[in-house]
Amino acid sequence: MGCYECCMRCLGGVPYISLVATLLCFSGIALFCGCGHQALTESERLIETYFARDHQDYITLAYLIEYFQYIIYGLASFFFLYCVILLAEGFYTTSAARQSFGEFRSTVCGRCLSTTFIVITYFLVVVWLLVFSLSALPVYFFYNMANTCHTINILSETPSSINQLCIDARQYGLLPWSAVPGKACGMTLSNVCKTREFFLTYDLYIAAFAGAGMTVLALLTYTVSTTYNFAVLRYLGRKGISPRC
């Protein structure tokens, strides 16, 4: 066998769909965890500076942010390992692995592994659809805030009107109703929207939202890949035909 045939044979055993899903998952998790972690930190700073004067008013929010950041650390570690395992499972169910371990053993073990990963990945898809939906909430909050600031800038010549335009953090559940002031109105709100912290936090939440969407897409791709591997190992394994996903 020549070098070209050997290379083509090796490339033919690469699980390209699993490889693409792995890269997509790594990128999505990196965006969600990295940007989400920093966005939570910046959000606490914004609330502390502009919406709450007493530390006791946002201490619950501060604890929640800290807990979420620890969860982000765990998510990053878990998905790094899980994506590597899924990629290895994709390689395992190719012809190269089948030649190494034997036809019967590869079919039985591959079928069990594929079934396990299908169940786990389906569960993760449901969880991340929920995470994807929840990650849209801070984007919605900052979008409303930016839109209100834009309206204030347009109506800046009528101070009596702009003072009625407010963003109340208490309405979004970020602060208790006893928090003072709890809201920002008029030019005060407009000045908040012009700060570096506001733009940075808004962009970070958008990036985290996009990262969650990329992760959902990667998990759906993994689901297709593992389901395909399971079907091929079950119905075509005895004929020596191996999956390429």
TrEMBL record:
GO molecular function terms listed in the Swiss-Prot or TrEMBL record: structural constituent of myelin sheath
Transmembrane domains' residue ranges: 16-40, 70-92, 113-137, 204-224
Keyword Membrane listed: yes
Keywords of the record: Membrane, Transmembrane, Transmembrane helix
Signal sequence interval, chain numbering: none
Family, as annotated: Belongs to the myelin proteolipid protein family.
Compartments (UniProt record): Membrane
Membrane topology, record value: Multi-pass membrane protein
Name of the protein in its database record: Myelin proteolipid protein-like isoform X2
Pfam families (alphabetical): Myelin_PLP (PF01275)
Organism: Carassius auratus (Goldfish)
Name of the encoding gene: LOC113113578
Any one Gene Ontology cellular component term annotated for this protein: plasma membrane
GO biological process terms, semicolon-separated: axon development; central nervous system myelination
